[in-house]
Each structure stands twice: as structure tokens, then as C-alpha cells.
């Protein structure tokens, strides 16, 4: 899977959200701005519902928040680099500075799992992580993650 098929440059950002709740709201706002048929509140609620089942903070400063939406046909991704790490209840108890959010169609379970797997694999690459953390230029972030 090509990440550029699900991640738009406009959904790649550097931010200082300050909290887990604020970063999930930011993700909802970014997606709703690019996909006017989607509600930022519905996106936020989908992400929060998943977080209530257990944190999507996978360790090493990374979180992969994800949710299912009934109003989409293809996955949608968002990359957020936090200028200041935030508490995210990650499995290693460390704050998170890189979030790769994923929204998938509610009825496509296998697509959801394969896309999550692709994201996790990409974010396990130490060179990619180093490059992502080194920059706060949004277009460069997009190039690093989709390259």
C-alpha cells in the first residue's frame, strides 16, 4: 500500500496540542477540513471510543489512534508531529510525539488490519523515525512518511 493514497499533505502537521484529548480533536478537525462530508465531532468520537478500549500508544513515542466511520469508502490517514510530547497512556508509559491516525470504513475489517500493519511497519523503521523527529516542516514530514 502506498501511504500517499490515504494520507494527504494537508493532513500532515506539526502541532503543540498539549493533551491526548486536544490531539484527537485536532485530528478530527484536519480530516473534516479535507473531507467536508465528515464531521470533526464524529471523527473525534470514533477515536475516543477506540482509546477507551485501550491506548493506541504503541511505545517509543508513537501512537496509532484509529477508528471506524460509516461515511467513508477508503481509509484516511493523518500524521501529527507534536512539538512537545504529550501523555498518551502508552504501553511503555512514555509520552508520545508522533501520531499516525487512521480512519477506516466501518465494514472493512481486513482493510483496517492490513493498513494498521503497514503503518506500524513504517513507524518501526529507526531511520524514518529519526527523520520525522528531526523536522517540523510539514511538507518534509509528508515526504519522509510517504517516501
Compact summary:
The protein has 147 residues and is α/β, with parallel strands linked by helices. 42% of the residues lie in helices and 27% in strands.
Describe the structure.
Helices cover 42% and strands 27% of the residues. The chain has 147 residues and is α/β, with parallel strands linked by helices. It has a single domain, classed as Mannitol-specific EII, Chain A (3-Layer(aba) Sandwich), CATH 3.40.930.10. Strands 1, 2, 3, 4, 5 and 6 form a six-stranded mixed beta sheet that branches. A hairpin with a 2-residue loop joins strand 2 and strand 3 (62-63). Helix 1 (20-34) packs across helix 2 (40-53). The chain is globular and about 35 Å long. The two termini are 12 Å apart.
**Number of discrete helical segments:** 5
H/E element sequence: EHHEEEEEHHH
CATH topology category name: Mannitol-specific EII, Chain A
Classified by CATH, the class is Alpha Beta
Assigned CATH superfamily:
Mannitol-specific EII, Chain A
Q: Give the CA-based shape.
A: globular
> What is the oligomeric state here?
single chain
- At CATH level 2, the architecture is 3-Layer(aba) Sandwich
Major β-sheet annotation: 6 strands, mixed
Which class best fits the helix and strand makeup?
A: alpha/beta
- Overall number of strands: 6
Portion in beta strands: 25-35%
Low-confidence stretches: none
- What's the overall average pLDDT, rounded? 91
Q: What is the domain tally? A: 1
Determine Rg (CA atoms, Å): 14 Å
User: Which percent range fits the helix content?
Assistant: 40-55%
Amino acid at each position: 500500500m502506498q501511504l500517499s493514497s490515504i494520507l494527504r499533505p494537508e493532513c500532515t502537521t506539526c502541532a503543540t496540542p498539549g493533551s491526548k484529548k486536544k490531539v484527537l480533536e485536532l485530528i478530527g478537525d484536519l480530516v473534516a477540513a479535507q473531507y467536508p462530508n465528515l464531521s470533526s465531532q464524529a471523527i473525534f468520537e470514533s477515536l475516543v471510543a477506540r482509546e477507551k478500549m485501550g491506548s493506541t500508544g504503541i511505545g517509543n513515542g508513537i501512537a496509532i489512534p484509529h477508528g471506524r466511520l460509516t461515511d467513508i469508502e477508503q481509509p484516511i490517514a493523518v500524521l501529527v508531529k507534536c512539538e512537545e510530547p504529550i501523555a498518551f497512556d502508552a504501553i511503555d508509559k512514555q509520552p508520545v510525539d508522533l501520531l499516525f491516525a487512521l480512519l477506516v470504513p466501518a465494514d472493512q475489517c481486513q482493510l483496517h488490519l492490513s493498513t494498521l500493519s503497514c503503518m506500524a511497519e513504517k513507524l518501526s523503521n529507526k531511520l524514518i523515525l529519526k527523520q520525522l523527529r528531526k523536522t517540523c516542516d510539514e511538507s518534509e514530514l509528508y515526504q519522509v512518511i510517504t517516501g
